[in-house]
Design goal:
The chain has 580 residues and is an alpha/beta fold. The protein has a domain at 82-104 and 118-217 and 270-416: Rossmann fold (3-Layer(aba) Sandwich). Helices cover 46% and strands 10% of the residues. A hairpin with a 2-residue loop joins strand 3 (62-64) and strand 4 (67-69). The protein is globular. Its main location: cytoplasm.
């Protein structure tokens, strides 16, 4: 202590030392001493919380990557992201309605147009294109999407078509698929999910609840049989067998994931069961959407699930069809949309909590054992490829908040390589080049000139399309979405895999034979044709579905498994296409 600081005090009468009635020296000394733990807690509570990045007033309640939002600003931020996907659904309904009107006017072009139809938005309420289909599981994602559909896509109860903002969607078919048949310890949640729909208004606001069961994939209790021996080519019978849909479903899953599996093959068996479960659910939703002739199918996959599916799909050999499965596409006559693809699981959970929205706790099919009441060893992070990928993405996102967005931005750049169309175009280009080569000679850069003409023609076509879109009355944002929807890939079912109904690779079996050690033995197996199973399914499946129908080494050579009839129908159609 310096002399100057001592002189700041006064001496008491007893001469026992200096005293400091104003406490100036005590404050200085206390400032240099370390804080007591209790003082640390008190000082930390006095610190101000970070301010919201958007409004600059309210304290932040959630951190999204590096951005901090208060509750009200986060709701605006969340709804703005989801509204982009809902705007795509509105434009898809508009496109489907216009296509329907064009088809109706073609045979009766000489007749007068319908006077009850609006020149700008038509009879969307009476048209089937004014309906969309939502796949509802009751979990947080689909539950949040159900609320967003009611608030931002469906018209309000007092909507007036002549005065209000035009709406293209007037009804939502809410489909719930009960998969309790695959889990012996669980009960059906159909009534619980129905109650969630009623909480949002039910039929009074335009929601039509449609309960289905996963065993409905075997329609009318009919199925076809397929060989299921270990390391055997998959062949199916061309005959239809009568079997209970529930028994056929259980037999299918018990074949690809039997109860007694070697520990080294247990993770692969679980992965196959998860893939088959997701494939059947997806098929039921698409089938219901096509039969009801809705404009688009909406599912509640968020950005976190999308990143997990991307890495998981690469590990399962689904890279070829990944642009068709993970992004928005037109599947035959139905658009497939994922409006929550830009929001993470954390954001969905916070949105439900702040808005007091109830949801069901989803059954974790990755952890639980399908068709097994024992063997609880599947609760670890290595239980399956899906479980391992999920733990990896969540771990990386916790340490590096930009992991999910980086994976999704990278996967969004993937473009589907239509090998069938490229093969046909290459043959046509080669024929034309040979003809011109004979007449002109090799010095003329034919390919470069043609590409320049095609690029110029494509640019003028796009400019003309943009000019025509401005006159549709969709608004500036709607016109941009319209052009984006028109550029989505279209899966027509040509050269499609009979199981997943997505495009299959060309020359897949030749590629697999080249990687086989005993090539001669494999060729001999493929050449044998069984009269009972005449259709070689392995030649028609994509690579991922070939792996999906694999069975463990404990499977006997004469084992068979049931498959839904749509697999047989698509396989027969593919064979006819090859013959033509």
């Amino acid at each position: 202590m310096t002399q100057e600081s001592l002189n700041d005090g006064q001496t008491n009468g007893s001469g026992s030392g200096p005293s400091y009635p104003d406490g100036s020296l005590a404050k200085r000394v206390a400032a240099t001493l370390p804080l007591h733990p209790a003082d640390k807690r008190a000082s930390s509570t006095n610190l101000k919380r970070p301010v919201c990045l958007r409004c600059k007033k309210e304290p932040s309640t959630i951190v999204v990557q590096t951005s901090k939002f208060c509750t009200s600003c986060f709701s605006f931020y969340f709804e703005g992201k989801v509204r982009t996907g809902l705007e795509q659904a509105r434009i898809c309904a508009y496109i489907k309605r216009m296509e329907g009107e064009e088809q109706q006017q073609q045979p009766q072009s000489s007749q007068q147009p319908d006077p009850t139809a609006s020149s700008k938005f038509g009879n969307a309420r009476q048209s089937k294109s004014g309906r969309v289909l939502l796949g509802l599981s009751g979990g947080p994602n689909s539950r949040a999407l159900l609320r967003m559909l009611r608030e931002h896509l469906l018209p309000p109860p007092n909507y007036d078509a002549k005065k209000g903002k035009p709406h293209e969607v007037f009804a939502v078919d809410v489909v719930y698929i009960d998969d309790s048949a695959l889990q012996p310890t669980t009960e059906s949640r159909t009534e619980e999910v129905r109650q969630l729909v009623e909480e949002e208004g039910g039929e009074s606001v335009g929601f039509n609840f449609i309960p289905l069961r996963i065993e409905d994939v075997f329609e009318e209790d009919k199925a076809t049989t397929c060989t299921a021996g270990f390391k055997q080519a998959r062949s199916i019978s061309d005959k239809i067998v009568q079997v209970s849909s529930l028994d056929a479903l259980r037999s299918l899953f018990s074949t690809i994931r039997p109860e007694k599996v070697p520990r080294t093959a247990l993770a692969n068996a679980r992965s196959r069961a998860e893939d088959m479960h997701r494939l059947l659910i997806t098929h039921l939703l698409r089938r219901e959407a096509e039969r009801r002739e809705v404009s688009c199918l909406l599912t509640g996959e968020n950005a976190t699930r999308r990143a997990i599916r991307t890495i998981e799909g690469l590990g399962r050999g689904q890279g070829h069809k990944m642009p068709m499965e993970e992004g928005p596409i037109r599947f035959r006559d139905v658009y497939l949309l994922k409006p929550l693809s830009d929001v993470t699981s954390k954001e969905v959970t916070f949105y439900l909590r702040t808005n007091n929205i109830n949801s069901l706790i989803p059954d974790d099919l990755i952890v639980s054992e399908l068709l097994s009441e024992q063997d609880g060893s599947g609760s670890g992070n290595k239980a399956s490829i899906g479980r391992l990928t999920e733990s990896l993405i969540n771990l990386l996102e916790g340490n590096v908040p930009g992991t999910i967005s980086t994976v999704n931005r990278t996967s969004s750049k993937l473009v589907f390589n239509d090998e069938e169309a490229s093969h046909i175009a290459a043959n046509e280009e080669e024929d034309k080049s040979d003809q011109v080569f004979e007449a002109v000679g090799p010095s003329m850069p034919l390919r470069r000139r043609k590409q320049t003409k095609e690029s110029n023609g494509a640019g003028s076509a796009i400019a003309e399309l943009e000019q025509n879109v401005r006159g549709l009355g969709l608004g500036g944002q709607g016109a941009k979405v319209y052009l984006s929807v028109k550029s989505w890939p279209h899966s027509t079912g040509h050269h499609a895999c009979p199981l997943c109904q997505m495009p299959a690779q060309r020359g897949l079996q030749e590629w697999r034979k080249a990687l086989t050690v005993d090539k001669k033995q494999e060729e001999e197996k493929v050449e044998k044709v069984d009269e009972q199973y005449p259709i070689n399914l392995s030649d028609l499946l994509c690579y991922a579905c070939n792996l999906l129908l694999d069975t463990p080494e404990t499977s006997p050579s004469d084992q068979t498994m049931p498959l839904p009839l749509f697999v047989l129908e698509d396989a027969q159609r593919r064979i006819k296409e090859k013959r033509l």
